[in-house]
Specification:
Blueprint: E1 12-14, E2 18-20, E3 33-42, E4 45-54, E5 61-67, H1 78-86, E6 90-94, H2 114-129, E7 134-144, H3 146-157, E8 164-168, H4 174-181, E9 191-193, E10 196-198, H5 200-204, H6 211-214, E11 221-227, H7 235-244, E12 248-253, H8 262-278
Helix pairs in contact: 1-8, 2-3
Length: 279
């Protein structure tokens, strides 16, 4: 299948704050929603987060699971979940176990890896797919940075469960970076930097992994947004993903860095809504 690389340069205005070409084309209909706490058992721990279910829909609705990045938590994605639910799209976000020093799901960052986070995510996928009002055939994943890598890992591991991927600056370089920095995976030492810890398992679980080789197994739509000022994850990693996935597109967000402020989330929200409403 011919690969699609859409370099759609969004307008950026820099003033006292950054604003971006956003969602003036949002669907007219607005929904009220119910927000509830969510707890999902994963082995010997519990993943905690929040579920946003739109009310008075015409039937089962798609679900977008939002995944935070390394050292972050669910609070970074509450804005996105709120806006999606108001457009009639169910959403949820949660803290990975050990995902940060302040994760509401508990756990230690020293014991966390992309694989443990993918296991958490898989349990959440199964949980939301069984909810009344959710279209189990349209479970979608949104991921930022490491959350984007974890979302990809879930999609290529269980492609039958995932409908689409929406990624912002996905940290697809993690396996290559960990492998290059640790020539012998048996001699890895934990690294502590401020509140963040990279444990031995963090390295060993992805050592030698070729995530790009796995991408052709996922047939669903993949939409990637990447800032042209990102100095944490090079855009080339997203460009490679577009070539590797069967059905993927990349949009360049002019003036955006690696962080995910509300104006950038607005662009991502519109991207998600446009895709799901067009189906």
């Amino acid at each position: 299948m011919k690969k699609l690389i859409a370099l759609m340069m969004a307008v950026c205005l820099l003033a006292s704050m950054m604003t971006f070409a956003a969602a003036e084309e949002q669907p007219v209909r607005r929904f009220k929603y119910k927000r509830t706490s969510m707890e999902v058992t994963v082995g010997d721990h519990t993943v905690k987060g929040y579920l946003y279910m739109p009310k008075n829909t015409d039937g089962p609705v798609p679900m977008v699971i939002a995944c935070h990045g390394f050292g972050a938590n669910h609070e970074n994605l509450l804005y996105l979940c709120d806006k999606l639910a108001r457009q009639g799209i169910a959403s949820c976000t949660f803290d990975f176990w050990g995902g940060s020093a302040f994760s509401i799901s508990g756990g230690s960052m020293a014991d966390m890896s992309a694989v443990t986070e993918q296991q958490d995510l898989d349990a959440v996928v199964d949980y939301v797919a069984a909810l009344d009002g959710v279209d189990a055939e349209r479970i979608c994943l949104m991921g930022h940075s490491q959350g984007g890598f974890v979302a990809v890992l879930e999609a290529v591991t269980v492609p039958e469960k995932i409908h689409a991927l929406y990624l912002y600056a996905p940290a697809l370089h993690i396996p290559e970076a960990m492998t290059a920095a640790n020539p012998d995976p048996e001699k890895v030492e934990a690294v502590v930097s401020g509140y963040n810890t990279i444990g031995v398992r963090y390295v060993q679980d992805v050592w030698g992994m070729d995530i790009y080789a796995k991408m052709p197994t996922f047939p669903g739509k993949v939409l990637i947004l990447h800032g042209d000022l990102d100095d944490a994850v090079a855009m080339s990693f997203s460009e490679r993903a577009v070539e590797a996935f069967p059905d993927a597109a990349l949009t360049v967000q002019v003036g955006a860095s690696h962080t995910l402020p509300d104006p950038v989330q607005d662009v991502l929200i519109q991207m998600i809504a446009d895709h799901l409403y067009a189906e």
